[in-house]
Amino acid sequence: QVQLVESGGGLVQPGGSLRLSCAASGSRYSINAMGWYRQAPGKQRELVARITSGGSTNYADSVKGRFTISRDNTKNTAYLQMNSLKPEDTAVYLCSAGASWGQGTQVTVSS
To answer: Could you give the percent of the chain with pLDDT greater than 70?
Structure first.
């Protein structure tokens, strides 16, 4: 079972930036795809961005051009650079790899 630990969330003003990290450990094998999801109160969990071990990416339409997912395979860590943040980006952001999930990190965009 892969353990995932997110970090980097916080409170930011609209238009600001945050960088989330997701560190994976405990896997005997190389980790294939890693993804960032988010869940706002009263809403369903949604995919934000996903990246394969080869670097292929896909994004939710709502974050294209503002968010960038990347990974460092040597560190088994995925990142989510979030720019031009909007209040509607407020949510708990969760990292996923295979069947494993992290505990989530809160992102709040508010003035």
So the answer is: 100
